[in-house]
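[Meeting: bench + compute handoff]

Bench side (C.D.) handed over the final construct sequence. Compute side (W.E.) agreed to return the predicted structure before the next meeting so the bench team could plan truncations. Sequence as handed over:
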Amino acid sequence: MKVWLGVSLLLLGMSVSVQASSLREQYRQAEQALNKNDVASFKQLRQGLDAYPLTPYLDFQLLADRITNLSTPQVVEFMHRYPDSLVADRLEGRYLHRLAREQRWREFLTLYPQLPSSEVLQCAHYRAKWATGDKNTALAGAKLMWLHGGSRATACDPLFDAWHTAGGRNDDDIWQRMLLAYEKNDHGLVTYLGRQLSPAAQPASELLQSLDKNPNQLLKGDLVRVSGEAQKTALSLALAKLADTEYTQVMSLYPKYQRQAGLTNAQVARIEQKLAQRLMYNRTHDYRSWLDSRLPAMGTEDLFELRARLAIWEQDWQHLPGWIARLSAETQQDSRWQYWRGRALKAQNRHGDGDKAWKLAASNRDYYGFLAAQQSKVPYALMKKSLPSAPTLSQARARWPAFSRTEEWLALGNKTAARSEWYHMLGKVSEADGLALGSLALQLGWFDKSIQASIQLRAWDHLDLRFPIVYRPDFQRQAQLLGVNEATLFAITRQESAFYEQARSPVGAGGLMQLMPGTAKETAKKFNISGFRQASDVYRADVNIQLGSSYFKQMLDRYSNNRVAAIAAYNAGPGRIDSWLRNSGSRPLDVWVENIPYRETRGYVQSVLYYSVIYQDMLGQPKTFITPNELNYVY
């Protein structure tokens, strides 16, 4: 019986494979006919393709190529035929653009009554509201779109013109946008908006444009004279901007301008906030008494965090709890500040209170929680949830047509299209269904998609989805060959690309471990990686893992086998890390990491370190967060 069952399944699999191959070929021919605009051949080939998962793309292309001749009922029919599909949303978006161009406003709102996400269609939405009689919504929307520090699409101009005709877009509206453009350093927009102001508003406009072109005029010779609230605002913004580069001069000048111009408390606070920020960024002791006396009155949450980090850098354990206490109650409960509060209290020999703070921090699964757990010698809080059962393939195909499309794109080798389908599908399903799909993706080896599911659903406790074991033989081989911690290699790759082989960063880094072309070439030469022959080889998983692991090994060798510095160098480059280490003055590990100048690199190091512990658990290895070598390293 088992033999016959096995033969039956084999024959069934062969039959499905032959059928899929036949339909794929027919789909390809239909696509070619469509590209040649041979509609007669296309329609003939289209027959019999209803069962093929990617057929909606053919139907979409047929309509999209003829968008100017479509009717609204045709678009609605397509959307009903393929509900919640990626191509239905695409066709709807293109058709909305056409309706907007043709000013068919009632059809526009009937087809899509909600506020769209794109800037052009948002302006069209408010124009439609105006044309159909809802002028209050249209005017409020026009002002909302207007108050933006950058240029707007030309499609928004008719909306702004209608608003202006109705008595809106007065001098105050233009001035407010001009100030936003000034703060965004959009010099062209500042000039453009200045020309739209009335003669009565020109003095303030001319001052702002003058300060935009030459801010240093405030620092030379006699004080610049201002009159009126608008000019005072321009002056205060210019002083605040100058504080970032000329803080010493602004520090002495702003009280004089305050007295002469009569700056308001809010205007003075803006200048002082910028001064405080620059002083703390520079880690200077200059004006420290001024900083600490003024900060309680004009400080913001961000500035109080910055001041607390400065106290950490200076290891000022006596005053750190006071600065932490100025943070919001919610922020103070964060594992980061519980850790640092405990650190400061224990430095003051208040060990009982420090232990309580560390106990709270250690209940979290993150960098600070694991740091507190290691310091307190308690287990790491992994808080791992079990996955729900995955549906069968036949159940998934029947319930979610997008699943079949994802599956077929992968079979055709188009990972980008498969990723788009999967991402779109996850946005349409319930949390329970999303977890079930993530569980199935994990079973199928679609690891980047299981991670996508965990992120989109915010399923942080489903560690199997978030941290899959991918390409284990390749990582294990490289770890043994190079003497590198395997869990750390997994953690770096998880942080870099979430195991998406085709990942490409905005600056050109590619593949699983995100190698820049120059770095890949140099590393391949240094380590004799024969599989790397051309730039596109970084998108081959086996080659990329060799390259990334070898480059990380270089960083480890450079920093005496210290993963912390090597991880930072992998992200920011060794030159920057060398500079930061030279200027750090021998700080403890936790203090140095907390004050890595780049927010991105700071978060990167923290994530990779705590991901490493999770991967140690996944791989069945002893869990070590920070090694003695790393703790004793001079940072």
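W.E. noted at the follow-up: Residues 1-16 have pLDDT under 50 and may be disordered. C.D. will use this when planning the next construct.
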